[in-house]
Design brief:
With 77 residues, this protein is mainly beta. The chain has a single domain, classed as Trypsin Inhibitor V, Chain A (2-Layer Sandwich). The protein contains one helix and three strands; from the N terminus they run H-E-E-E. Strands 1-3-2 form a three-stranded mixed beta sheet. It is elongated, with a radius of gyration of 15 Å. This is PASTA domain-containing protein.
């Protein structure tokens, strides 16, 4: 059973992954998979995981794609 209105998935973009999960659970939304994405080239990322994509599946679950919030530039020798 759902409690209240469904979460607008656009409102989750940029949030910390934990906060996004809490908002979904508070709205009685089912959280699906949370997948961390990384750039195709080897780079160093740091910081908390931020939501970059949210999608509601056919089963009603909300899947999240997250990435680290900051790029760390390489240090020149």
């Amino acid at each position: 059973m759902r409690g209240g209105a469904a979460v607008d998935l656009n409102d989750l973009i940029g949030l910390d992954a934990g906060e996004a999960r809490r908002r979904l659970e508070a709205a009685a939304e089912r959280v699906g998979v949370i997948v961390e994405t990384t750039p195709p080239r080897p780079v160093v990322l740091e910081g908390s995981l931020r939501v970059v994509r949210a999608r509601r599946g056919r089963d009603g679950q909300v899947d999240l794609v997250v990435t680290r919030e900051r790029y760390v530039p390489p240090v020149s020798p």
